[in-house]
Specification:
Pfam families: Synaptobrevin. Keywords: Coiled coil, Membrane, Transmembrane, Transmembrane helix. InterPro entries: Synaptobrevin/VAMP (IPR016444), V_SNARE_CC (IPR042855). By secondary structure, this protein is mainly alpha-helical. The radius of gyration is 49 Å and the shape is rod-shaped. Helices cover about 70% and strands about 5% of the residues. The protein has 2 domains: about 40 residues, no CATH class; about 90 residues.
């Protein structure tokens, strides 16, 4: 039932001319169109390796694109955060000034009354000192 065959015959494809040739210091596979029974070409190891390398290159390219996009987005976020930090500092300065102005506006009359009272007290003290030194009091 099962016939023993030569290993050379097992390497021969069923369809097409894909035999081995001698030459160049060794045997190498002849690059002929080897086809399956349905007519599609049978891929060789070199073809498969090329497809794997092509897929690796595509994946590397995709990863590089993603890294570049992420880097651009990160730079954009960093730029916005710096602008926000600057705006926060400016807001703090403006709000401090506004707080002082509002405090002065609301306490203006209190400050005026206190200053007037201090001046009147100083005048009274100076007057008393002068009058005591002249012997009037």
């Amino acid at each position: 039932m099962h016939e023993e065959s030569d290993p050379e015959e097992e390497r021969q494809p069923l369809l097409g001319d894909g035999g081995y040739v001698k030459g160049g210091g060794g045997r190498r596979k002849q690059r002929a169109a080897v086809k399956f029974a349905d007519g599609k070409p049978k891929p060789t190891i070199e073809d498969l390796q090329w497809e794997v390398e092509e897929a690796q290159n595509i994946m590397r390219s995709n990863v590089e694109k993603l890294v570049n996009e992420r880097e651009e987005r990160l730079e954009n976020v960093l730029g916005r955060s710096e602008k926000l930090h600057d705006a926060a500092g400016s807001f703090a300065r403006v709000s401090r000034r506004a707080r002082v102005r509002i405090w002065l506006r609301s306490n203006k009359w209190t400050i005026c009354i206190i200053c007037t009272a201090v001046v009147l007290i100083l005048c009274a003290v100076v007057t008393v000192i002068v009058l005591k030194s002249k012997g009037v009091i």
